[in-house]
Amino acid sequence: MYHVAKMEIFFEIVKLSIYFFVFIYLYLFKKVHLCTQEKQNYMNTFGKIFVTTISLCAMFVSCQLPQQSIDLSGQWNVIFDDSNFDSLGYDIVLPGTTDGAGLGYADTLTDLLVKPQVLRLTRKHSYVGKARYIRSFYVPENLSGQPLELSLERVLWSSQIKVDGQPVEGREMSLVSPHRHRLPELAAGEHLLEIEVDNSKHLDISVDELCHSYTDATQVKWNGVLGEMQIRPLKPVRIAQVEVYPDVKHQQAKLKIVVENEGNATPEKISIKVSNKELNFIESSTIDAHLGVNEVVLDMKGAALWNEFSPIIYNVDVECGQGADKDVYATTFGMRSLENLDGKLCLNGQPIFLRGTLECCVFPLTGNPPTDEAGWEKVLGKIKEWGLNHLRFHSWCPPDAAFRVADRLGVYLQVELPVWSLKVGDDEDVKQFMCEEMENIIRCYGNHPSLCMISNGNELQYDFDFLNSLTAWAKKRDPRHLYITTSFTFEKGHGGRNEPEDEYYVTQWTDNGWVRGQGVFDAEEPSFCKNYNASMGCLSVPLITHEIGQYAVYPDLKEIDQYTGSLTPHNFMAVRDDLKKKGLLSRAEDYLQASGQLAAILYKEECERAMKTSGLSGYQLLGLQDFPGQGTALVGLLNAFWESKGLVEPAWFRQFCAPVVPLANFEKAVWKSDETLKVVSQIANYSTSDLQDKTLKWKLLHSDGSLCKEGKINVVNAVQGEVTEVGNFEVELSDLTVAEQLTLRLSVDETDYSNSWNIWVYPADYRVENGEVLVTASVKEAEKALREGRKVLLSPNLGTVKGLEGKFLPVFWSPVHFPKQAGTMGLLCNPKHPALALFPTQMFGDWQWWRLEKRATVMNIDSLHEVTPIIEAVDNFANNRQLATVVEVQCGKGKLLLSAIDLLSDGAESPEIKQLLGSLLHYMNSDDFAPTGTISYNELSSLFNA
User: Fold this and answer.
1) Are strands 90-94 and 74-80 parallel, antiparallel or unpaired?
2) What predicted TM-score, i.e. pTM, was given to this entire model?
3) Which of 184, 190, 51, 209 is nearest to 128 (CA)?
């Protein structure tokens, strides 16, 4: 705040200076006898005079203005409550952390090949306990003798204060909001401030300390202070809180203004102004004030509504008092309403679909969340770039900067209480803490239009009476947001339908069935006409699917060099060193690409099945970004820094993750040329209006991008907020005479909305020619032929070969966190290998490989150094074995191609199985088939079960 009289003088001087400069400018241009260069010289001179005048005025006024706050950022001394550290303390800059300053117990990990080292990132320096931050500060004359308040924007976990060696009453321990301490009245001059921060565990809020508010799995248990650190005076009469309640239906905004005082000071008038300069909108009012809650309703007719497409923000300035005692409270809000209408999530009366991902406090440079807008612009900017409109903060609540940026960009946020507990209700102190943190979130962040939903925590158990009562209280306290008892639960008797107090529901399944894919994609043959309609209908509130995806991607070892901050990627380094030891380091990029491309197509199908489901209100991915904790769960298409791994482009992702998405429903991925591709087309429309009189174009493209077939459908209407079936079409495949991968593309004419899918077509009359190769499932028959010097393709029946179960899906979440999994991360091959010349494929296991991989046993060929793999499997990064399903080798006098994919038993008539068998035999009958490695008959026998 500034002294008004001084500011008025300053602005008058600025105004007169501008008038003078404009006069000189016009005068010079009338002086026609001056040449252009002379005019320019005069202009430069007067420009300098103008700038100097303004600068001197600003310096004069600033020198005369009384200081209104004390900035505490800068150099401090920190003393640890630990005898292993210097009792005189250490220099540290605040805001900051001891981790960032390189203070605490140093990382001593050495043997990176020990499996526990791949659990998470590691703090270079760690300290958990009490730390005292000490510095002197100066109280100016105008603040002397006034009550003061110290504000610390974010602290983990509690803070207590001393001034001049004397304890200040009270302890703050919020994990979601600023810590505020009332200081005693102080005389002008220098004083000593001590902030004791205790980052040790205060309450049992988490299972295995995984809650992202207090953990070492993502953000670390840092000690320090983040964000704003200031001391401000408490005015005799002050605005303590302003809450803005927009009423979209009646085009009004109700303000609840809380007025407090010191001593016997009494309020008189409150002035309120709501404005938006860009829209030239101003609405103001003045009311008589009283202590406590003052309410005023402002007319907002003509105000623009806030949403993801038009995130319009209005400024609110509330003032009371006069002169030096004037108090000003500034906040912002957006005109928006969020509600449940007939089981659909509706914003401003229109259905919306949340396209979301999780944010788990993953900040790998610092180990703590940013408090500046730049840090959040990177995160939320990526969200928008990839077509998302929603972010769920899993078991934590971000600082205010995140909400400010989300307000500007139009991102719908769900925040959560800092709890992930399986025994909610056991501890009265935890229950009280949850109630207080709910109030803190509402009080500190409630005006932000981006704050849409609030959850009591993640996967909570078990006292649902308490969780429902807390939710009911929050709904009554602040109806601007939607509330939920828990973001999913495994509690028996709960989880299949919404709780009585839920206003929306986040779940993996309902009483009627699953609402996410994952294991389904391994259990069922690929089909692109599936949805979760059968699982809907048993809820009375909007449903959002919980943590869909979780498809593990192999570590990007190039990421290691990015860790230049306070965390060391021992988890990545352990994988690197293990690969190096095994001679596989050069394969790391292939492993990344193959597993990552597989994850990408799985995420696509997850998102599309959700969008095809009538009545579903959204999904929450886990995730777009990697999760470096819990055994290193690298499930993202982006790394932990929100940066590309080089897997797919944002534009590819936006095909199926956008306000409007064309959708194709068809039976399967693999087709024969005597079949007809039948497609039911839909448009999911979650824009702001109906799509009318649009044309839906379809194309079938060859693998080189050239046109195979095309057509169009005239779309009468794609209703806003619905998934509309807009027409069917059929494609005859009979003129496709060779095996080919094709791309089906749908696009809405005159828009950027398009989507595409790969299909594979194989000749219906394809004949497999054995040529000079013996094709057998019998190991004995194969050995006999090899001893005779023949070429042999050995493809034993499923279950004969030793190894791992064949899986189409990669490991779930993390092979370290969930070790009892089959353990592979997808298929890997060289599409240009002559053995695959007649089998169109990319380097990873796309949908046409599903049946082949399910008929496979994955062999461990670590000990068979001379065996050359043709088709490999990517092992999980906890084991890093060399795995394969098809290999070639010289055995005795013969040449062997061993396929652990069952190509011969029942079901082998499937077109893709026949095509792969034919391609392998074509290779074996050519001069290209010349295995260089050798294997003994005993080694060969060791590959099979007795």
Assistant:
1) antiparallel
2) 0.92
3) 209
The pLDDT value recorded for residue 822 is 76
Q: What is the pLDDT of residue 4?
A: 38
Q: What are phi and psi of 120, to 5 degrees?
A: -170, 180
The burial of 887, by beta-carbon neighbours within 10 Å (0-12 exposed, 13-18 middle, 19 or more buried), is given as: buried
Q: Helix, strand, or coil here: 866?
A: coil
End-to-end CA distance of the chain: 85
**Residue 562 to residues 107, 109, 361, 585, 643, Cα–Cα distance (Å):** 18, 19, 18, 19, 11
Please answer whether residues 380 and 406 qualify as being in contact, where contact means their C-beta atoms are separated by less than 8 angstroms.
yes
3-state secondary structure 166-196: EECCCCECCCCCCEEEEECCCCCEEEEEEEE
393: closest CA among 514, 539, 218, 530? Answer: 218
CA angle 8, 9, 13 (to 5 degrees): 115
Residue 943 sits at φ, ψ, to 5 deg, of -80, -10
302 class by beta-carbon count within 10 Å (0-12 exposed, 13-18 middle, 19+ buried) = exposed
Residue 946 is predicted with a pLDDT of 78
Name the token pair of 262. Answer: 């010191």
Q: What is the pLDDT of residue 66?
A: 73
| Token pair in block for residue 527 | 């089909």
| Rg value, the chain, Cα | 33
Q: How far apart are CA 250 and CA 258, in angstroms?
A: 24
Query: What per-residue confidence (pLDDT) applies to 526?
Result: 97
Cβ atoms 453, 413 nearer than 8 A: yes
Distance (Å, rounded) from C-alpha 100 to C-alpha 97?
A: 5
Tokens of 503: 């206003």
75 alpha carbon, distance to own chain's centre: 34
Cβ-based neighbour number of residue 538 at 10 Å: 13
Spatial CB neighbours of 791, under 8 Å, sequence gap ≥ 6: 772, 773, 774, 894, 895, 897, 924, 925, 929
Pair of tokens at residue 276: 């938006």
Tens of pLDDT, residue by residue over 785-821, are 999 999 999 999 999 999 999 999 999 999 999 988 8
Query: What digits encode the pLDDT tens for the residues 874-886?
Result: 999 999 999 999 9
Task: Specify the pLDDT at position 712.
Answer: 96
Q: What is the pLDDT of residues 579-637, one digit of tens each?
A: 999 999 999 999 999 999 999 999 999 999 999 999 999 999 999 999 999 999 999 99
What is the DSSP-derived secondary structure letter of residue 107?
P
d(CA 215, CA 603): 28
Helix or strand or coil: residue 612? coil
Q: Which helix (H) or strand (E) holds 577?
A: helix 570-582
Counting as low any pLDDT under 50, the low residues of the chain are: 1-8, 32, 61-64
With CA atoms as reference, report the closest residue to 178 among 230, 240, 235, 128.
230
What is the C-alpha to C-alpha distance for residues 924 and 901, in angstroms, rounded to an integer? 17
C-alpha–C-alpha distance, residues 820 and 823, integer Å = 8
